[in-house]
Amino acid sequence: MSKSLKTRKILILTVNIVLIIMEILGLWLMVELYKSYGLHPFGWLMYYTQLSNIFSMLAALIVAFFTAKDLIINKDTSPNWVRIIKFSSACCLAETFLVTMFVLAPMGMMGGFVPLMFQGPNLFHHTLCPIVSILSVWILEKGSKITLKNCICSMIPTLIYGVVSVTLNILKVWHGPYPFLYVYEQPVYMSLIWAVVVLGGAFLITLGMKALINSSSRKIKES
Which of 52, 60, 111, 145 is the Cys-Cys partner for 16 at CB 3.0 to 4.6 Å? Predict the structure, then answer.
């Protein structure tokens, strides 16, 4: 392993450990927040934000494990699927970050922009963790070219959440938790429009991440 690659591996390991710590802090703050409201401590599991951050934490654990292994044996042996999982989790967090900033905050959810982005567990789950995850997979975690197939696969967690959340809202098991999931408080066509906007926007974000990461990888190969 070259000196430059070893240095990058050390940075990847460090950043992913920091990300894991921030994710754990955010989850702990969520538990404490719900307990302070007298709610079930894990009631927040209905939110895409927290589920995507749990996915991010697991992806960071996988990356950290294989990166540490590479440093120990002094070889670059990390399989490409590890990078794809991290890419998928970063796309989910990018969706969380952008939807929170440009959809939920303008709608005044939870008090608006400042509480949603900077207060309590939201500081970690809506802002810091997405930014760190995106920067890590963009700048540090290089590998083979991200393909359209990878982008489609990265949409699977979002699609699963969408199908489950809409179904549970129709069955009146859940209410929301996001305003665009209130199926009984808006016309059917609005629910369909929201589905197209949210899923279409999520796919565009994924394509944007693909372009960003592949462009960065080409620059490294050309230098």
Answer: 60
